[in-house]
């Protein structure tokens, strides 16, 4: 007996086969990028950067996964102490019509309390989150250059790049439309201008001493500026609930 596909499947198969696969270097609209990406469930990371498809090579343990987890932990602990903030990991971000990026980690103020990004009806993130972090090992060229320009142009207020191969961390803040490097203070700490209390012991992070990084963060979370910031967001959340 010769088996045949159901009518519905047979009708669908040619249509699926006609959709080209994503390939690095393709120049696509954002809608076409999403259409092809959705048809490739085995692909877990692809980005549209200035209209061109970028598909990074597989990530390495020490050069990407471990630093990525450390940054996500640092930001997650901060967000847990600040109502009205969220951390998102490897989310597809529709930042403008030519760019759908997949930042390693981001920290945002939720839209309910005035954040600059929002969750779309189909659960994609849209707009410019307040803070983005990228782990740039083999992808330093576009993380440091092209993506930095995209983030700046779209108003991402702070951008951190951990250049693993260079053993260096760059943290930029948006000032008058340009990114300016935040400097390490006398205590060896970099302090966020957007998220009060988000303090980073950069040398400890580079050394892999996450316990020391979190200890410094706890000091930031006990600062007066952080208390005011967290109280403000809490008040906005409560006001929104009462008015809903």
Provide a compact summary of the structure:
This protein is an alpha+beta fold. Helices cover 37% and strands 23% of the residues. Helix 3 (61-80) runs parallel beside helix 6 (210-221).
- Category by helix and strand content: alpha+beta
Largest sheet report: 6 strands, mixed
What ranges have pLDDT less than 50 throughout 5 or more consecutive residues?
1-16
Order of helices and strands: HHEEHEEEEEEEHEEEEEHHH
Number of helices: 7
Query: What value does the average pLDDT take?
Result: 86
Principal-axis shape: globular
The total strand number stands at 14
Radius of gyration, in Å, reads 21 Å
Our estimate of the beta-strand percent is 15-25%
Please estimate the helix content: 25-40%
Distance between the termini: 63 Å
Q: Trace the largest sheet across and list its strands.
A: 3-6-9-10-11-12
Q: What are the SSEs and their pairings?
A:
Elements: H1 7-17, H2 30-38, E1 47-49, E2 52-54, H3 61-80, E3 85-89, E4 93-96, E5 99-101, E6 105-109, E7 117-119, E8 125-127, E9 131-136, H4 140-153, E10 158-163, E11 168-175, E12 178-181, E13 190-191, E14 199-200, H5 202-206, H6 210-221, H7 224-243
Parallel strand pairs: 4-8, 9-10
Antiparallel strand pairs: 1-2, 3-6, 4-5, 6-9, 7-8, 10-11, 11-12, 13-14
Helix pairs in contact: 3-6
Describe the 3D structure.
This protein has a six-stranded mixed β-sheet with strand order 3-6-9-10-11-12, sandwiched between helices. The chain has a four-stranded mixed β-sheet with strand order 5-4-8-7, with no helix packed on it. The protein is 37% helix and 23% strand. By secondary structure, it is of the alpha+beta class. Helix 3 (61-80) runs parallel beside helix 6 (210-221). The longest helix is centred in the N-terminal third of the chain and has 20 residues, at 61-80. A hairpin with a 4-residue loop joins strand 10 (158-163) and strand 11 (168-175). The chain is built from seven helices and 14 strands. The protein has helices at 7-17, 30-38, 61-80, 140-153, 202-206, 210-221, 224-243, and strands at residues 47-49, 52-54, 85-89, 93-96, 99-101, 105-109, 117-119, 125-127, 131-136, 158-163, 168-175, 178-181, 190-191, 199-200. 34% of the residues are buried.
């Amino acid at each position: 007996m010769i088996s045949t596909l159901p009518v519905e499947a047979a009708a669908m198969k040619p249509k699926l086969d006609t959709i080209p696969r994503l390939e690095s270097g393709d120049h696509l609209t954002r809608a076409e990028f999403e259409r092809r990406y959705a048809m490739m469930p085995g692909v877990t990371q692809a980005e549209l950067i200035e209209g061109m498809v970028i598909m990074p090579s597989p990530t390495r343990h020490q050069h990407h996964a471990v630093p990525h987890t450390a940054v996500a932990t640092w930001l997650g602990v901060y967000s847990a102490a600040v109502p009205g903030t969220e951390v998102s990991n490897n989310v597809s971000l529709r930042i403008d019509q030519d760019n759908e990026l997949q930042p390693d980690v981001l920290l945002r103020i939720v839209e309910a309390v005035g954040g600059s990004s929002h969750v779309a009806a189909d659960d994609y993130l849209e707009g410019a989150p307040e803070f983005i972090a990228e782990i740039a090992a083999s992808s330093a060229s576009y993380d440091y250059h092209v993506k930095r320009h995209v983030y700046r142009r779209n108003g991402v207020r702070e951008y951190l790049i951990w250049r693993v191969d260079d053993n260096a961390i760059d943290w930029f803040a948006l000032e008058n439309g340009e990114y300016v490097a935040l400097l390490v203070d006398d205590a060896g700490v970099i302090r966020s201008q957007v998220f009060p209390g988000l303090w980073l012991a950069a040398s400890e992070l580079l050394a892999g001493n996450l316990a020391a990084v979190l200890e410094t963060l706890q000091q930031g979370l006990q600062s007066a500026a952080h208390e005011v910031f967290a109280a403000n967001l809490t008040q906005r959340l409560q006001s929104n609930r009462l008015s809903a």
